[in-house]
Design brief:
- This protein is mainly β.
- Among the domains are: about 120 residues, 7 Propeller (Methylamine Dehydrogenase, Chain H), CATH 2.130.10; about 100 residues, Lipocalin (Beta Barrel), CATH 2.40.128.
- The chain is about 0% helix and about 45% strand.
- It contains no helices and 30 strands.
- Strand 17 and strand 18 form a beta hairpin.
- The protein starts with a strand and ends with a strand.
- It holds the Pfam family WD40.
- InterPro entries: WD40/YVTN_repeat-like_dom_sf, WD40_PAC1, WD40_repeat_CS, WD40_repeat_dom_sf, WD40_rpt, WSB_SOCS-box_domain.
- It comes from Reticulomyxa filosa.
- One of its GO terms (biological process) is protein polyubiquitination.
Length: about 325
Amino acid sequence: MCVHKKKKNEKKINECEKEMKELEASPQRKQVKIKNEIEQESDDEIDNIPFRWSKVERPSELRVLEQHTSKLKCVQFSPDGLAIVFAADKCAEIQSIQSHCKMATQFNGHSNITGRELTAFNGHSDVIRCAQFSPDGHTIVSCSRDRSIRLWDIATGRELQFFGIHSKSVDWVQFAHDGHSIVSCSWDLTVQWLDIKQNKAVKVFTGHSDAVHRINLSPDGCKIVSCSSDKTIRLWDVSTTKQLYALNTHSGDVNCVQFSPDGRTIASCHEDNAIRLWRCDPTNPIHIIKGHSAAVNDVCFSPDGHRILSCSSDKTIRLWK
């Protein structure tokens, strides 16, 4: 892929009054989901952005969600891409993408029915760090500061399984692509592979020297990338649990790591305001992308792999080409 220096290569969504913590492109590449209190869009462009990815079309549409009074903690598309579920401090909401209307809301234990009844998932005793849909869309997995991982039936809200394999806060969980396993990471310095049927951890990946905050499974399911407060990004072989390499970024905490759709590139975002792109057998980053003026909290590839979205404590969302 060729890289050219060029100005006005970035679309900037208008500044918001609250920090943005996370965002992701939908499967149809027509929506953006944002973890913060205010979401806005604009056709404005800005100068002084160092890199452009060539031969990539600009996105045709950005969807904007409504304003909230507190920070959003977690958000995810449903597998069919037609709905979003997200949570703030005291509010959980399901929203239709196409109609842009609430399907259901729960606030302080009371339901505000606007479409169909909301299912409440009660069981965690501390802050929920992450929630993810299963590949078939019938189950949700969640993890919490209470050190547990739980599986839930979406239709009934019933807790299906409890995993208590971590000794400290669990920061992230992800279903394996076949839906039969779960990958998790924790402040106990480990990444673990959980077999749902056996109801136990069958693989443990060790090597980080500080809390592990984020993991991502490669598209082929053969590798895991992880990032940590130890300032490293590590790549793991799923079958052997061996560490393939460790990158010391020398750039403060790494907040997020994400495989590209083809599995050949890893994007990471950092406390030093930068985004870095790495090959899966790297010695140095392919590109260091600068433009944010504060810590970059999340980064993701578009499904076609030609665009990157980032969000930052500088209150902006930026689209990179």
